[in-house]
């Protein structure tokens, strides 16, 4: 006997919910970020992360499994060739949900769900920039001290 999915129900039948999540995942992979309700974003996150993990494996079996959910071959191709390689070193956490307040018409809580860009690479770049700044400050501090010792040597 089928059991209801864990998490908040999105209304309608189980088939409607499955198709809704598949369409949200398709839009997320197509555009990189989508604005939706918080409940839909929370339900979409594990679906999208599972699809990206399957795409990272890259074999034909996983491609067929992803095609069961996302039927657009162009978006599946993009997922396997562009999106999945971006996260090859990342063990999970491919999406980010940001709350953006309530919708004007019905006061529904809204959120933006987006694919996380290479955060690991950004952290390394920031660390390199901070190290370069520290080196520059240290060299600037040493330069006046060296000039002062040269001036003292000339005066003596």
Features of this protein?
156 residues; alpha+beta; 50s Ribosomal Protein L17, Chain: A; 3-stranded antiparallel beta sheet; 5 helices; 3 strands; elongated; ribosomal protein; ribonucleoprotein
Radius of gyration: 25 Å
User: End-to-end span in angstroms?
Assistant: 97 Å
Helix content: 55-70%
* Order of strands in the sheet with most strands: 1-3-2
Q: Count of DSSP helices?
A: 5
Calculate the mean pLDDT score and round it. Answer: 87
What shape does the CA trace take?
elongated
Query: What oligomeric state do the depicted chains represent?
Result: single chain
Going by CATH, the homologous superfamily of the largest domain would be Ribosomal protein L17
CATH class of the largest domain: Alpha Beta
Give unreliable regions as ranges. Answer: none
Number of DSSP E strands: 3
Q: Which structural class best describes the helix and strand composition?
A: alpha+beta
Structure in a nutshell:
By secondary structure, the chain is α+β, with helices and mostly antiparallel strands. The chain has 5 helices and 3 strands; from the N terminus they run αβαααββα. A hairpin with a 6-residue loop joins strand 2 (95-102) and strand 3 (109-115).
Structural overview:
It comes from Streptomyces termitum. There is one protein chain. The chain has helices at 14-31, 38-57, 60-69, 73-86, 119-155; strands spanning 33-37, 95-102, 109-115. It is an alpha+beta fold. Strands 1-3-2 form a three-stranded antiparallel sheet. The longest helix is centred in the last third of the chain and has 37 residues, at 119-155. The protein starts with 13 loop residues before the first helix and ends with a helix.
